[in-house]
């Protein structure tokens, strides 16, 4: 006789409500953590890992907490192929190592920084033209800037419009979250795939003869199949625009909600890099990432059978008070080191240095230099949306 359990026996949060999490997930995350590090949420068919220790442990056991699934296929369906983020090593590593060289800090500074700076100048000009009466920081600055930066990083032709990049990214993200199989969401993702593939039909042959520093070129240079190159370009479109856009608006919103801290930052007493990390911790653009248990295992003293769908609650881990004191408080003076907003382990965000450079070295410092009085518009409210991918969809501002 053995005491080893063979079925899932964990606290159940039958009250977990995705609809109210869309408005504000943090109160429910707190309740989940109070139940324990491993909690079943039947309504989303997932076992959540809620604490920093649980998420970090799963991230560092990727052979057990697998990114490969034969059943959870919304990302593969949305992007029209299986990208590195839905593979395990060694096939994941072959694709990931192709893009690392052009996204490391040195390449970011040498190659991408000057372009990020030029793009910021252009879109601050646009924001000033829209004017303080009806400016929306997301529509008029964050979204087009993040889109243009990504067009450059991917090496897409100059005639690709920022509106197209934004639409592609948004439709892929909607597809990745399309658990209810809404046909209209698939239609938009398919349309985006067709448009991106048409760009790649022209771009890939050119990059074969004239390689450059772009992510697309790096994927080609290591000899990956065209199918894999395309899947990873689509992956980069899905994550490389949406999250940086949200980080820009989250940062301005967080500083506006804490004017005393904003004054300290603008006086140069805290560097923008630390503000970026604290904002990523406090309002994480990616709230949850999925994994599947490959073989029967135990985590944080809890048995999980093979095949369990797991959700790593990055945003909840980032509010864990055993790691971050007074974790619900935005505090630019704390060290947010160790936060999990970019994941951890082998799938840790490939674009984190590019995002940090674009936002903390260029977008935010320049925005406050050129428009020092920037603040939330008192007569128009911001809109937040999402808990798996979470951000501000409209941020009315004035100055
Ligand atoms: C602030 C902005 C960003 C945030 C918060 C963010 C967040 C994340 C997270 C949490 C993951 C891991 C997902 C998982 O483990 O399932 C990830 C992976 C990834 N991100 Fe980002 N990301 C950001 C910006 C970017 C940018 C700008 C790019 C590209 C230029 C990018 C490219 C990628 C890629 C390619 C992966 C997959 C890595 C792999 O599977 O090894 N991200 N990102």
From TrEMBL:
<keyword id="KW-0503">Monooxygenase</keyword>
<dbReference type="InterPro" id="IPR017972">
    <property type="entry name" value="Cyt_P450_CS"/>
</dbReference>
<dbReference type="Pfam" id="PF00067">
    <property type="entry name" value="p450"/>
</dbReference>
<keyword id="KW-0560">Oxidoreductase</keyword>
<dbReference type="GO" id="GO:0016705">
    <property type="term" value="F:oxidoreductase activity, acting on paired donors, with incorporation or reduction of molecular oxygen"/>
</dbReference>
<protein>
    <submittedName>
        <fullName>Cytochrome P450</fullName>
    </submittedName>
</protein>
<keyword id="KW-0479">Metal-binding</keyword>
<dbReference type="InterPro" id="IPR002397">
    <property type="entry name" value="Cyt_P450_B"/>
</dbReference>
<dbReference type="GO" id="GO:0020037">
    <property type="term" value="F:heme binding"/>
</dbReference>
<dbReference type="GO" id="GO:0004497">
    <property type="term" value="F:monooxygenase activity"/>
</dbReference>
<comment type="similarity">
    <text>Belongs to the cytochrome P450 family.</text>
</comment>
<dbReference type="GO" id="GO:0005506">
    <property type="term" value="F:iron ion binding"/>
</dbReference>
<keyword id="KW-0349">Heme</keyword>
<dbReference type="InterPro" id="IPR036396">
    <property type="entry name" value="Cyt_P450_sf"/>
</dbReference>
<keyword id="KW-0408">Iron</keyword>
<dbReference type="InterPro" id="IPR001128">
    <property type="entry name" value="Cyt_P450"/>
</dbReference>
